[in-house]
Amino acid sequence: MVFEQIGNFLETTAFYNVSFDQLIMIVIALFLLYLAIAKRYEPLLLVPISFGMLLVNIPQGDIMDPGGLLYYLYQPVDWGVYPPLIFLGVGAMTDFGPLIANPKTFLLGAAAQFGIFITFLGALGLGFTPQEAGSIGIIGGADGPTAIFLTSQLAPELLGSVAIAAYAYMALVPIIQPPIMKALTNEEERQIVMEQLRPVSKRERILFPIIVFILTSFLIPSAIPLLGMLMFGNLLKECGVTDRLSNAAQNELNNIVVIFLGLTVGATADAGSFLRLQTIGIIGLGLGAFAVGTAVGVLLGKLMCKLTGGKINPLIGSAGVSAVPMAARVSQSVGREANPNNFLLMHAMGPNVAGVIGSAIAAGLLLAML
């Protein structure tokens, strides 16, 4: 009787029920945890995502089944609530001053979104549905919340693969971008020192989020959830009378949403949905989208350099992807390699924050068309 009870107990354990595919997913989750903790690759989101992958791939846990904890926490992902709330926090932490001071850099942020639409066409050519292709293409914006928002609306079955690819490439910005930047520019261009940005008035900072939101929302209403929260968060920061709300959006609210979003998105990467050839295609296409976006931003930077008589360093064009502020820091780093006296960080922040706006607009366009 005792041995029978022991046998019954063992049959309920994960050791007895685990599959080879689930073991592979557990190893992948542990590897991602290593990258997040030891290498500090986007740890604030990669740690929750990786742990969510662990939770869902332990047999018998039923964590995502109806009645399970993450089942309920996942519903706001399905409804498209978490990403706009993260954009609220991002807006409260973002300084649009460099973009306001040099509006031309808006073009660089727009150019870097080119990779999204090129990859969209490539995914269609490989047999993905239009909705799946749109979800894959948005990886090129290097904006995790935007990728999650669009994928949850268009192709929720790809959410785990798209989210992991998006955040992986955001984390690998310092590795992926510099070779592309150096290949497309010469030493003389990389050494260009840009003029100091003009001061931006308080009035400009307050009016900017209001005007941008009105213009973009009338043009692309489907982008309102992301752009509306982004600009509302920035208005809380800049208006000077809502410091408590701004601090809450930046800290408590943002941190809570990041935990819930990371865990639940990671929990969509179960062995059955993640370990497919399709996932390899998504990761490859995502890398292509990111590389194309970086390259187009640098090439437009070269064109603007020539048109302005050498006043714009083309390296800041690579910051047009939405990985804030890491992409801007990479522009600064590569520029300092060529010229130790170069300081491109604030100049690169212009296209960098423009890229956040651009990726949200691109998501809105794809959502409206598909």
From TrEMBL:
Domain of life according to the entry: Bacteria
GO biological process, one term: sodium ion transport
Name of the protein this chain belongs to: Glutaconyl-CoA decarboxylase beta subunit
Residue ranges crossing the lipid bilayer per the database entry: 20-37, 44-61, 81-99, 106-127, 158-176, 206-232, 280-300, 348-368
UniProt main location, coarse: membrane
A Pfam family: OAD_beta
Membrane topology: Multi-pass membrane protein
PANTHER family per the UniProt record, alphabetical: OXALOACETATE DECARBOXYLASE BETA CHAIN 2 (PTHR35806)
